[in-house]
Amino acid sequence: MSDTTMFELVSPERLLMSRDVSMVVVPGGEGFFGVLPRHSPLLSTLVPGVIDVYENDSITDRIFVAGGFAEVTGDRCTVLAEEAVAVADLDVEAADQRVADLRDNLKDAIGSEADRLIRRIAELEAVAVAMKFAKSS
Amino acid sequence: MPSLKDLKLRINSVKSTQKITSAMKMVAAAKLRRAQEQAEAARPYSVRMDRMIASLADKSSGVGGPKLLSGTGADDSHLLVVMTADRGLCGGFNTSIVRATRKRIGALEQDGKKVRLICVGRKGKDQLRRDYASLITDTIEGVTRKKVEFSSAADIGGRLLQMYENGEFDICTIIYNRFQSAMTQIVTEQQIIPASVPEEADGVAGLYEYEPDEEGILAELLPRNVATQIFSALLENTASEHGARMSAMDSATRNAGEMIDKLTLTYNRTRQGIITKELIEIISGAEAL
What we know:
The complex is a heterodimer. Chain A is built from two helices and eight strands, in the order ββββββββαα. In chain A, helix 1 runs antiparallel to helix 2. Chain A is of the alpha+beta class. Chain A has two domains: 83 residues, ATP Synthase, domain 1 (Sandwich), CATH 2.60.15.10; 47 residues. In chain A, strands 1, 2, 3, 4, 5, 6, 7 and 8 form an eight-stranded mixed sheet that branches. Chain B has a five-stranded mixed sheet with strand order 3-2-1-4-5, with helices on both faces. In chain B, helix 3 links the parallel strand 1 and strand 2. Classes of the chains: A alpha+beta, B alpha/beta. The interface between A and B is medium-sized, with 28 and 34 residues.
């Protein structure tokens, strides 16, 4: 058994990252968890937050994800994320703008369309809050 | 017998048509390559998502499972999402999808099911509107015009889920062209709601721990899976569209070439004929003197 774990970050558009790392910390639905080699198999949801990639005991990448899933087995950790951005490139204003745009749409929406928008706004707001937190930490 | 001038005009017009078709072929080839790359790049996501669902579905495939997996328990009303291109001039691409759709609608209606349609892409709507205008509930255009974005797939997925929650349909099927090669596209009907469970690939499924729990993950995973499947169908469809257009334009260019050859031959013959005729006239005129 090697002392690294294969970390894969996949977005719907493409495979963003695939390499051997010593540890990753991911924002699981029930709290952050670290994945080291020979981790027990785990499937988890992710909440908006930051993935820290460790190589040789130091953080080499900090990536913000807006939710998704993580699949962990003994030798790899796969993260499926619809939106993944390096923390340095985070655009908080754009996230706020998206929320504002949807709020505008909501004014004209009716019935089930409105329900859908409300849910979407709540999701995006959570993402925006998490982004601000990630940026400041 | 057409005059020389007419022939010249026709040759010129076919030549300019050929220029257009060969340019369109080049453009389609470039777009095809990009679309193929994009489809290729998107594959890891859906592969991994399938793997997760396969391992989860095993565990909660009972009646109490989520509605997106087990279905509503009925199959009375069907929703067909028909994916076509926004533009024509791509051979039988749109027609073959529409034909498959008609066949499907016919079969379903024969069984007494209720059918509704959502058309993605303008061409499908235009063709289906003639016979099934009352069935079309929604049309989405412009998705494939530029690069296919995941957000537009997520948007379509969101609409479908909303309709499903409102009980507007029991089974949702997408119809699109699967890309095989630039020459062949396969019309594919794929049921996305309730989710068809992919075959279990490896035997590690039972070993997973789940956070928060199987149901919790499935509830998050399944809606996203709908969007993912739509996204990959859109990508396949776009690649197929450009492939179909490329081969259609290739044969159009070749046809134009043949036509030019034929017309040029006729033109030369006619020209020669006229010269001979004039010579005969001059000679016989001279002899008569």
